[in-house]
Amino acid sequence: MSDQHPIPADPIAAAQAANRMIANGQGGTMIPSLGLEYLEVGPERIVARIPVERNTQPYGLLHGGATAALCETVASFGTAFVAGLDKIVTGVELNVNHIRAVRAGFVTATGVPLHVGRTTAVWDMRVHDDEGRLVAASRLTLVIREPNPG
User: Fold this and answer.
1) Cα 130 from chain centroid?
2) Are 88 and 146 in contact (CB under 8 A)?
3) Under a CB-based contact definition with an 8 Å cutoff, are residues 77 and 15 in contact?
4) How far is CA 96 from the centre of its chain?
5) pTM above 0.85?
6) Is residue 37 annotated as part of the catalytic site, yes or no?
7) How far apart are CA 2 and CA 5, in angstroms?
8) Fewer CB within 10 Å: N-end or C-end of the chain?
9) Is residue 113 classed as helix, strand or coil in its secondary structure?
10) Which of 72, 93, 131, 146 is catalytic?
11) What domains can be seen in the chain, in order of their start residue?
């Protein structure tokens, strides 16, 4: 483990550590409700997925809000991973273009940082279904703040 990141450098091991963080400390957040699972975690790319089941709208299609939450979580965690897990990272503008409807299986988001600076970050996410078809394209702008003392 590096001094900057309390999770391993290997993307698969880092994803496993991030999943343990969800299981151990995110119980009151939306993340477990989504069924989010990290597949890869690294400074160059974050990959996570959610099941379509339990994340649908009344027509049985993947809910756009679930897709948005997946994308925002990927970029937020990715920014915290790169900037430091002690930082407060908050999304300020999210754009999601929903391209294809999905009724079953999983959707997987791959996020890559376009910019991670001292106070802002911008991430690009692509969401695919189990057949590798593009489901959504997203971009998130975030602010990075120091934790409040005390």
Assistant:
1) 17
2) yes
3) no
4) 13
5) yes
6) no
7) 5
8) C
9) strand
10) 72
11) 11-145 (3.10.129.10)
